[in-house]
Write a structure and sequence with these properties.
mainly alpha, 115 residues, de novo design (two linked rop proteins), 4 helices, elongated
Length: 115
């Protein structure tokens, strides 16, 4: 079992949640408890799936990583939607989008390595 601090992707997802947690506090109430909550839950699911994958044998990692990849695609869409409806500003959007893109690339690379 790896320490999650030693796993770069888990640290990246952890940091994304921490950054979004600060962002969601500044969102309007109508957005915070709908789209904001959905984004938070999606990040937590990705965190859970990557921790799960890091603790499984090589062949068993594929399923949670594929699920994490799908959740990452959903997260990209939700963050873009939050920006489009002005729930988050341009600066926050760019930072969050860069983080999610990097996480997506890391998950994709991990999947390619396993397959």
């Amino acid at each position: 079992m790896e320490n999650f601090h030693d796993t770069p992707i888990i640290q990246k997802v952890y940091n994304l949640y921490r950054d979004f947690y600060i962002t969601v506090e500044k969102m309007q109430k109508k957005d915070k408890y709908s789209l904001g909550l959905k984004i938070q839950n999606s990040i937590l699911e990705i965190l859970e799936l990557t921790i799960e994958a890091s603790n499984l044998k090589q062949a068993e990692k594929i399923t949670p990583l594929e699920k994490a990849s799908i959740k990452t695609d959903l997260l990209k869409t939700l963050i873009r939607l939050a920006h489009d409806i002005k729930a988050i500003d341009q600066k926050k959007y760019i930072k969050l989008e860069e983080q999610v893109q990097e996480i997506g690339k890391m998950i994709g690379g991990w999947l390619r390595y396993i397959k």
